[in-house]
Write a structure and sequence with these properties.
The chain is α/β, with parallel strands linked by helices and about 375 residues long. The chain contains 14 helices and 13 strands. This is Glycosyl transferase, group 1.
Length: about 375
Amino acid sequence: MRVLYLFDTTDRAESESVIEMASHGVVPTIVCQPDAPMRGRFEAAGLEVIPVAMRSKADRAAIAALRRLRRERTFDLVHAYYKIALTNYNLAAVGLPRVPVVAYRGIIGNLSYWDPFSWLSFLDPRIERIVCVCEAIRRYFLDKPFLPGTRLFRPERVVTIHKGHRPAWYQQPDARLPADLAIPQGAPVIGCVARMKKRKGIVELIRAFEQIPAEHNAHLVLIGPIEYPAIEQAAAHSPAADRIRITGYRADAPKIAGAFDIATLPSLRREGLPRAIIEAMAQGIPAVVSDSGGNPELVEDGVSGRVTPAGDVDALAAALRELVADPALRGRLGAAAHERIATRLTVERTARETLALYAGVLGQRSGEPAA
């Protein structure tokens, strides 16, 4: 099976899944940005990589390169992992013999019937399958109305396949809290790594943190660019301000996050399958998340962490307070979190499910029953 894989940058989980599929008979041709982080990994695995710079959703040079590739090569299937790659490919393929396209989707929302580029990507009815990283994204597609009383997306067209991971990728043997954060030794640390937007629920997190009794000496660390000024205002005026640290972007964020006692992401809406929580769980750090989007697909409430209703400050405070006060509970939930990533969200499982999807698509195209 000859598959053309279209990337913009490259994500480790996606890339390792492609490498795993190559070990099961797929012959990949990989298109990605020249400086894509995983390009060297692909090449070391013996896979063909064709670097193509894509600077926009309709990059003339990229379109020409993809069109030339399609004319020169024969592919059984195209799998696009990024929207920018998908739109450029769909423009390049105009007038060429049709090859089935599979597209990956990792976020909820940002698709408009009034946006021409949405029709060149996920709204394009010619796309055979849309692979969603979590069930919440699949439900978004299925619930999206089209004309009155109709839906654009049939259930069989949209599928959920979780990304696969290996805990070893995320281990931080030198994890530490840097001295500039001035956190007392032994103080429980609650951490959140994210782009600090309004929908991430950070103001609500600060309000919840204020309810943790001061005698626990818990500290809250917020890592990521601030895109919602109310976050800094809430922290500055908080009665717990002396125990809140806002770092902004940090190049050493993985090392800091590896030293958290509790990871949290209390998103209000539109959450996918957050990598920051996966990385924490892989390191045995229990997570407290909201029930937004794919969070409940990662964290089993009371088993590998805690799940609270999105926007419910009191419920979030209770979950955080429970874990801050009970190191043994943190240990049990953290161990279960590591086990969940190690056994349920594996590269091998992702590759197996993706190969089954390919077989179904190609079977349908040839008139055979879908797998």
